[in-house]
C-alpha cells in the first residue's frame, strides 16, 4: 500500500464515516479515508499522491505505512554522492515526512529494510495491528508482478495477507475485526511488464498541484518528476475519453490509473 513514491508500501482509508449507499459500499464496508503502506520510499508517491490528496480534501484520513526507506535500491543519487547508509535513511525519511505533509497524510515507518524486503511473522503482525487500529476502507499497494523490483510484489503480498488476517476474528491482535476494504494496485513504472491493466481511472485534476508539491519533496528521485507528470496528462486524456463523447477537444484533465484486486460489490450497475 502506499501514498508517496515507488517504494514498497500501501495505504489504507482512514476512519471518517460517511452516509452509506449502494455506490459507497464495497463488500459492505463503510466509506472512510484511505491509508497506504510502503516498503520503500520510491517515487511512487508521485504515482498515487493525487488520490491521497483527494481524500484529504474531502476531510478523510490518509495514512501511509513505509515498510522501508528505500535506502539501498531507491537512492542511487545519494550513494553516488558518497553518503552513508544512516545518512541516506535519515534523508529519505525526511523526504517522506515532507511529502506526507504536503498531502495532509499521516505516515508511519517500520524500517524493515529493502533490497531485499524480507517478509517475517513480526512484520506481518505489525501490519495486522495497523489494519485493526486504523480500520481502513481503501487499500492501495503495488501490483503482484514486477520483474524489475522484487520488493514491490513482496510489499503487495504483505498488504494483502495482513488484510486477510485482520479480518479473522480468531487472530490475536487488539482492535475491531477488519471489514473488507477494497484493494487497488496503483500504476507501476513499467506497466506492460508488470501485467498492469487498469480498470479504474481517477480524475485528480483538482489535487494535482498538491501532488506536484509532494513530488518535489523527493529530490533523491528527481529523475522521476517529469515521468509522473507526463503520465498524469496521458491518463487525464483517458479519463475524459471514458467519461463522455469524443469531441476531439483539448483537455487539461490529470488522471491516475488503478487495478482492482477484489470484485466491486454494488446494488446497481452504473
Please characterize this protein's 3D structure.
With about 270 residues, the chain is an alpha/beta fold. About 35% of the residues lie in helices and about 15% in strands. About 50% of the residues are buried. The N terminus is likely disordered. The two termini are about 30 Å apart. The chain is globular, with a radius of gyration of 18 Å. Helix 5 links the parallel strand 5 and strand 6. The chain contains 7 helices and 8 strands; from the N terminus they run E-E-H-E-H-H-E-H-E-H-E-E-H-H-E. Helix 4 packs across helix 5. Strands 1, 2, 3, 4, 5, 6, 7 and 8 form an 8-stranded mixed beta sheet that branches. The chain has one domain: LmbE-like (Rossmann fold, 3-Layer(aba) Sandwich).
Quickly list its features.
single chain, 270 residues, alpha/beta, Rossmann fold, 34% helix
Q: Kindly state the mean pLDDT as a whole number?
A: 84
Helical content (DSSP H or I, runs of 4+): 25-40%
Order of helices and strands: EEHEHHEHEHEEHHE
* Count of folded domains: 1
**Total beta-strand segments:** 8
The low-confidence runs, each spanning 5 or more residues with pLDDT under 50, are 1-6, 15-33, 38-49
Please give the structural blueprint.
Blueprint: E1 9-13, E2 35-38, H1 44-57, E3 62-66, H2 76-80, H3 85-103, E4 106-109, H4 121-134, E5 139-141, H5 151-166, E6 183-186, E7 200-203, H6 208-215, H7 225-241, E8 255-260
Parallel strand pairs: 2-3, 2-5, 3-4, 5-6
Antiparallel strand pairs: 1-2, 1-3, 1-5, 6-8, 7-8
Helix pairs in contact: 1-6, 3-6, 4-5
